Amino acid sequence: MGTATQIDATVPVPGVRGVSLVALAKDPFGYCMKAARQGDGLVRLGAGPVRAYLVSHPDYVRHILVGNAANYVKGSIMDGIRLALGNGLFTSDGDFWRRQRRLMQPAFHTRRIQRMAETVGEAVDASMASWAPAVANGAPIDILRESVQINITIILKTLFGTDIDEERSTRLHDLTDQVFAGMTRRVWTFFVPSWLPTPGAAAYGRAIEALDQEIYALISARRAALADGDAGEDLLSALIQAEDAETGERMSDRQLRDEVFTIFLAGYESTATGVAWAWHLLSQHPEAATRLGEEVDRVLGGRRPGYDDLAELTYTRRVVSETFRLYPAFPMYFRGSVEDDVVGPYAIPGGANIIISPYATHHDPRHWDDPEAFDPDRFTPERYDSRAREAYYPFGKGQRMCIGEPMSLTIAQLLIATIAQAYEVRTVPGAQITGRYAMTYQPKNGLPVILTPRG
Ligand code: HEM
């Protein structure tokens, strides 16, 4: 339980002004980002009885995620997400979450990530081979679609030890998109009266059920393989065998399903989208692409990058960091306050919905100079000072930080280095690129680029 705080602050949280509720209904993400520019990083959303707050000031974010984290649970906005993820690591709270995190953390150890680097190489090789005809003809390829294909291959191999054909991975991706769409619709329902029907509820239910069948089939195949003595180096085998150090307990089948569903959903589209946005940015900033190319040539001398090269690929890493600043894969995440609290000068009541937005912080000129500019050198040791660190949190903060961060950064760095080594990436003239929010922030209609082999 949170620490009860006497509210004696007198400053009411400012409400949103001059943005119509029609705008909220049409484009809730756009509404939230406009709202974030008002006030000083804590603003009350909606109107009437809605008790929802958008938080983007780094100090207030730190208070909620770190300083008084015990007062902020995942909250009721997550109810719609729980329909899909159940009581997995992303959605659970309290002692149950703590036990699961303790149980699962060892499965994300560095050795597994090192092994995963080989899988990254294989997946990107297969995709690059399939691009050859388009490259030869100067035809565009959709780098988002390709990045999704590569990342889904990596996560399935890492999670289940399974190679997967394109048809199945396309089916899994379609289902994931439907699940994300259902979650997104549910997330915004706290703005509307509870007696209104939620659009798309049946389709959401069907998508969860279909993805469930796929996940259960993959779990039972892995259980059978384990029973046959195939120890398996995959994440799922580690989760099946994980024992609580205090109680010796293992996870139930239902819990395994929730965790696997969570890792699958949290795990590939986020990284895939990030890598695709990186290529979009690089295609628009040839000077950055040239520096990247020079770095991979110098460090790798024509060899494929491996895990041990990552520390040397410092500019590549800065490109990844800057991409996740401009396009944090999860631009918003959610909490609910337990007791009344004081955040900065503001009174926040217990039972309120809280939206934390790294996207809003990362684009705020009060925290970043020229925030819309793509400038990887913001992340040089000289410039990435403590103020910038506070204002940067694509993977969260505090005890609920992303368990997959090292995995995701490794994949992103390796993919960007490998593609930079082989191609120059150019924009397609006339292509209009816009984003859309569907839990992750992704290009709306794909991301066409033209790849030219590097000399
Ligand atoms: C670009 C890639 C990714 C981004 C930006 C990202 C972002 C995040 C964020 C912001 C949170 C915290 C949410 C909160 O505080 O409510 C989180 C949690 C989580 N992420 Fe990621 N993530 C990424 C990739 C991954 C990958 C690759 C995996 C797994 C393989 C993963 C698994 C999880 C899990 C299980 C949690 C819940 C952790 C907990 O509450 O203990 N994520 N992620």
Automatic annotation (TrEMBL):
<keyword id="KW-0503">Monooxygenase</keyword>
<keyword id="KW-0349">Heme</keyword>
<dbReference type="InterPro" id="IPR001128">
    <property type="entry name" value="Cyt_P450"/>
</dbReference>
<keyword id="KW-0479">Metal-binding</keyword>
<keyword id="KW-0408">Iron</keyword>
<protein>
    <submittedName>
        <fullName>Cytochrome P450</fullName>
    </submittedName>
</protein>
<dbReference type="InterPro" id="IPR036396">
    <property type="entry name" value="Cyt_P450_sf"/>
</dbReference>
<dbReference type="Pfam" id="PF00067">
    <property type="entry name" value="p450"/>
</dbReference>
<dbReference type="InterPro" id="IPR050196">
    <property type="entry name" value="Cytochrome_P450_Monoox"/>
</dbReference>
<keyword id="KW-0560">Oxidoreductase</keyword>
<dbReference type="InterPro" id="IPR017972">
    <property type="entry name" value="Cyt_P450_CS"/>
</dbReference>
<comment type="similarity">
    <text>Belongs to the cytochrome P450 family.</text>
</comment>
<dbReference type="InterPro" id="IPR002401">
    <property type="entry name" value="Cyt_P450_E_grp-I"/>
</dbReference>
